[in-house]
Amino acid sequence: MKQTTNSILMIRPVAFRMNEQTAVNNYYQKVIEGLLPATVNAKAQQEFDAFVEKLRAVGVDVTVVDDTSNPDTPDSIFPNNWVSFHENGDVALYPMFAENRREERREDILDILEDKGFVISNIMDYTSAEEDGFFLEGTGSLVLDRANSKAYCALSPRADEELFIEFCEDFDYAPVIFEAFQTVDSERKLIYHTNVMMCLGETFAVICSDCIDDKKERKMVLDNLKENGKEIILITEAQMNNFVGNMLEVRGANEKRYLVMSAAAHQSLTPKQIEQLEKHAEILSSSLDTIEACGGGSARCMMAEIFLPRN
After folding, report:
1. How many CB atoms neighbour CB 193 within 10 A?
2. What is the dihedral of CA 293, 235, 253, 303, to 10 degrees?
3. What is the pLDDT of residues 290-304, one digit of tens each?
């Protein structure tokens, strides 16, 4: 299986703002004082459009779908949490922690992809777990090593262990399970999504191993990455807070590899880290300051990779 794709789904926001329902365990979100909601959304749209333009300029096939103003979905810009697309034609739909995020799941988006020639053969629907209070938020909770059939998951209120194992059984992934923490007001708290502390490319892994407080777990995760021949690029917790872990490797024109991240993440990298990363892929960055501050997510969260076969 391929680790990277040329096709990306992105949702253009219409009412983007800080989502009060996700802020309870996403410690990256902030209220930007003195800005009207309409201004926040307008800034987010500008950042979104500039980002899409940069991706398309290097030959990434981006399918942009506009969000709808009703129902109210302030986090719709992060579609990778509710859906994932797989090479065998499977689509997975995921149970979401925040009630107002559940409305982001839209069947018409799947229809749009089919109209573009993507083939959907089967839908794996895990959303009924919401009724029992269990969640697994797509490729936010899951960092997939598709090529080596491994799935990494940092357990949290948004990543349930049993659901994760069920996903791995259904999709034939070997589970790599651990806990990752960040310091919030001098307390260690679980990181809400695995994809803020690690990113897997074809030949490299970016990870904040300092977040894995249990030494045995930390060694186990790093051993798994080494076993698959990944060059490991370690980042600090301070860098993670600038969304350095929240990157995605994609393919542009002529199969060229790009590592996509925000401008804040790019600026937080050391010259040595940039040199390490550029051996694997060209860095493509775009300013996402408003989206990062209010949404508590970054470049990776905005892109749902499409691995579906095409007609």
Report:
1. 31
2. -40
3. 899 887 789 999 999
d(CA 41, CA 73): 12
The whole-number pLDDT of residue 26 equals: 46
Report residue 35 as tokens.
């800005």
Are residues 12 and 40 in contact, defined by beta-carbon separation less than 8 angstroms? no
Question: How much is the pTM?
Answer: 0.93
What is the rounded CA–CA span in Å between residue 149 and residue 162? 18
- CA distances (Å), 255 to each of 52, 58, 122, 151, 242, in order? 18, 10, 28, 24, 29
Residue-wise burial string across 54-78, b where 16 or more C-beta atoms lie within 10 A, e elsewhere? bbeebebbbbebebeeeeebbbbbb
Contacts of 146-150 with C-beta under 8 Å, sequence gap 24+, read 146/1, 146/2, 146/3, 146/87, 146/307, 147/1, 147/2, 147/3, 147/202, 147/228, 148/228, 149/1, 149/173, 149/174, 150/174, 150/175, 150/176, 150/224, 150/228
Helix (H, G, I), strand (E, B) or coil at 156: strand
